[in-house]
Specification:
Number of helices: 5
Radius of gyration: 15 Å
Strand content: 25-35%
Order of helices and strands: EHHHEEEHEHEE
Largest sheet: 7 strands, mixed
Shape: globular
């Protein structure tokens, strides 16, 4: 698997993944996303220096998931991972997270990576724990903040 940046040709597939019930149930926003809203978000993201969407794909071009990073300022970034329906359970989450972090570190100074993980999403919690993230806080809703601090 290799990573590449988001392309316009990914917009519709990413919207389909985003609206998949098994993805929405763990999202901070559980409502389906409309086409125009998603296209605008994707186009904005492609132009941003503070938000990147990386696509994981196999040698044959099959897209297996995404890893996203959004800057919080002060060298901290929020990370989120989505593994495509039908591709889960094959280790892609860990690959996306490891390769995405390497990609980000080549381009930015990073001191902390933060993930907001639904407290009932055990698979996601295990993924981030295995990558060195620790539980740092619990919000008043359904999410835990998991953080991986990096050396300066």
């Amino acid at each position: 698997m290799r990573l590449r940046v988001l392309r316009r040709s990914d917009f519709l597939l990413l919207r389909r993944w985003r609206n998949e019930p098994s993805v929405r149930q763990w999202s901070g926003n559980t409502r389906p996303v409309g086409l125009l809203e998603h296209v605008r978000w994707s186009a904005r993201t492609m132009r941003s220096d503070d938000h990147v969407v990386l696509i994981g794909e196999e040698d044959d071009g099959q897209r297996v998931g995404t890893v996203q990073y959004r800057s919080l300022g002060e060298n901290a970034w929020v990370v989120s991972v989505t593994v495509a329906p039908g591709m889960r359970g094959h280790g892609y989450g860990g690959q996306l997270l490891r390769q995405g972090e390497a990609w980000l570190l080549e381009r930015h100074e990073v001191r902390a990576l933060k993930a907001f993980v639904h407290r009932r999403n055990v698979a996601s919690q295990r993924l981030f724990e295995s990558a060195g993230y620790v539980h740092e806080a619990r919000d008043s809703g359904d999410f835990d903040l998991m953080v991986r601090r990096l050396q300066a």
